Amino acid sequence: MNISLTINGEERQLDVEPRRTLADALRDDCGLTGTHLGCEHGVCGACTVQVDGTAVRSCLMFAVQCDGSTVRTVEGLAAPDGTPHPLQTAFASEHALQCGFCTPGFLMLAAAALEENPALADDPDGLRELLTSNLCRCTGYEAIRLAVRLAAAMRNTGGT
Amino acid sequence: MADPGDMGQAVARVEDGPLVRGHGQFVADLRVPGCLEAAFVRSGVAHGLLRSVDLTASRRTPGVRGAWSASHLDDVPLVPAMLYPEGALDRPWPALATDRVRYAGEPVAIVVAENRYVAEDGRDRARISTEPLPAVLDSAQAGRDEVPLFPGLSNVAVDVTVGEPVDPRVWERAAAVVDTTYRYPALCHTSVEARAILSRPEPGGVLTVWCSHQAPHRLRNDLAAALGLPTDVVRVIVPDVGGAFGGKSETWPEYLAVTAAALRLARPVRWVEDRAEALSAGPRGRAQTQRVRLAADADGRFLAMELHTDAAVGGYPHMGAFLPEVTARMATGAYATPEVHVRARAVLTNTPPLCPYRGAGRPEAAYAVECTVDLLARRIGMDPAELRRRNFVRPDAFPYDTPTGFRYDSGDYPAALDLALKTLDYPRWRAEQAHRRAADGTPLGIGVCAYVERSGAGGEFGAVEAHADGTFTATSGCCATGQAHATTFAQVVASALGVDRHLVHLVEADTSVVPRGVGSFASRSMQNGGEALLEAAHRLLAEARRRLAAQADVPEAEIVVQSGGTLHARGRTRTLGELAAHHPLRAEAQVEPPQAFPFGAYAAVVEVDRELGIVRVLRLVAVDDYGTVVNPLVVHGQTYGSIAQGLGQALYEEAVHDADGRPRTVSLLEYLLPTLSEIPDITLEETCTPNPATRLGAKGAGEAGCIGVPPAVVNAVADALQIDPSTLTVPLTPETCWRAAR
Prior knowledge:
- The structure holds two protein chains of two kinds.
- Chain A is of the alpha+beta class.
- Chain A contains five helices and five strands; from the N terminus they run ββαβββαααα.
- In chain A, helix 2 (86-93) crosses helix 5 (142-156).
- In chain A, 58% of the residues are buried.
- By secondary structure, chain B is an alpha+beta fold.
- In chain B, the strands form seven sheets. In chain B, strands 3-5-1-12-9-10-11 form a seven-stranded mixed sheet, with helices on both faces. A five-stranded mixed sheet of chain B has the order 7-15-14-13-8.
- The longest helix of chain B is centred in the last third of the chain and has 28 residues, at 525-552.
- Chains A and B meet through helix 1, helix 2, helix 3, helix 4 and helix 5 of A and helix 1 and helix 17 of B.
């Protein structure tokens, strides 16, 4: 099936089988391998991307469901001039990644949430609930939580 | 003056840039032209005679490029044994099952296709005929040898004793003896990236293999030997690795089958294990059944301990047969128990193969010892912390030779426990507990664990080279899987050379560039690999001294090494880069420090909901002594992660099979990993007893949370419910605790 989507600001025409997941279309058809597959059944969240601004598990969506949609992946998180997103800076400074495999999913999850509600970082329960969506086996999560809070503070002060 | 190498500083990692931008290069991310994808046809039964494998329909599937079972291959590669070949003798493990299957999920055939979808189509069209045999799933049953996995051979692959037998009179005369059993379930490593390999035959008979691995040189040697290739034509490259935790040290049958298929097709072939495969048929850890006996005198001083442990090593002993002996040797724990005797067996079972999982034998030992110490404390009515203090190996007793044959290098166990209790505010929680008990409130318990572990083993290679442009290359035989070697090894080398750490670039994990190496497991990277690089850096300085002495015609003794990587002699100054301008300036080191024994104390406070059985960890304190710490940010991060895995072991994780040996925990909705919501309030503290055997002083780090947390949490739950810890079995599910609270 032919579909058309806007991925990280770029218009893409894809010819995909109906059964092809969005994750595989992004990774294999578009070469955007930053979106990782950790479980392929919607639990770990490593494959989280944004579809029309909402964080979704790209392993649980078929590519054809995204016809006409706007998709943002981790490769589209930094500014066009390469300036890192505050979350990318904060994840590094807080040691919020070790192997880094789950990191793109956490970044896309948190980026969508902070865009929707910049005050989320000040709501401990809301932030905890959000980050409970995804699995990390290396960090024990605390550094991820701190990184999201730091990124929110950086955004609110206009810094990067 | 500040150390430009930032030794000991919590500097941010240099690895993170590509990873946060989505530019990591994990095996599945590699874009290799013409690469085919593999899927495995796996046994649906846990034990049976393989009658036939029909791949006709698989091969007819459009897009399938090849499908093979053992019967289609002239020569099925055999899986090599890791570390303990004795247990694997006469028990061949073909990469694809030949006449018998010994665990559900065992690879029976490989299907290679243009993409993974088609490969799975082909896999699903394979027809296997198996004549089922009774499945033996636990070590006690299997150890009776009523159902042999290898006809004519015992299911007991390894049976070792460690320490002298305890004089029976000790048990008779002791003031108190406790005798109990434990079951430590099978666990799944569950790195978020499961196993992955890509093998590409090159023109000229060379083979390039990218694998998500911890020990590239071992993998290279094993692949070459198993496939009948010269070692020097195999190149193993380990790209980014999405977590490993012991499950990626081995040469698994799937790796051999993928590589054999690539060679047959003369095409690159990749296999990326999916989560269902990893949980149902992938590596397992722990899986021990233990019986422990501990005797003490009237003052609570330990007289003797006896442990019998059986590990269920799965259908093949090749990867896990050495683990029970590790447990046996660590059974002394932190205590000066005069007599310790252990019998440890590796028993074949119709379950997926056992291999090291973070802690690898030490968590099982700490569990047996530390839960039993609490059991004894309860029996004799003594505070468990006080009972530990009375029995610790004293700080002035090091080096301490244990009855189980290890030499503990250094330590101060009372200091670690005291710091843990102080940080926890132990008296306050005891008061809170008394208050709740008086008021019939929600049960609250406090548990401690004083652990000793073992780190590092074997030699390691390191090299440092100075370049004329002022940069340096550090080459290591280790292999990072998320531990930040590029950052921390650069700190070690730069600090020794007195140069900015950003000038030091690390090379590792490529067998064509690194001449030899052992890899990263057993908490060995900084202890052994860091030491090798430190030694190489000092040898580089020595060579630079000799070079400048010759150039300037001055005695070496007059040469002063100053910060910034510069050397001075009689008014002449040369940088290391200048000294490298005309001749390579490079030094190598091969070091083999003895294994070290990091230690610490963990304390947990829990409350248990009597009606729902839910355990809530209110507070967790971890005191660890890793010796010299090169980068606290990295070490604390690993401690946190290890604690999270320890909580998983204590409360959530278990690989479950049905009565026929078919896996029941096949998704992450059944095999439960901790999320952020399960992480309690954690405080990390440290003591520092440098490794006396090395210049660097580092001991292993990163596995302690898996060792210390489970006994601390179980002891705390038992304390809350006022029951013997041995009546609880991990994971402490709500049902387990609800029943225990009745």
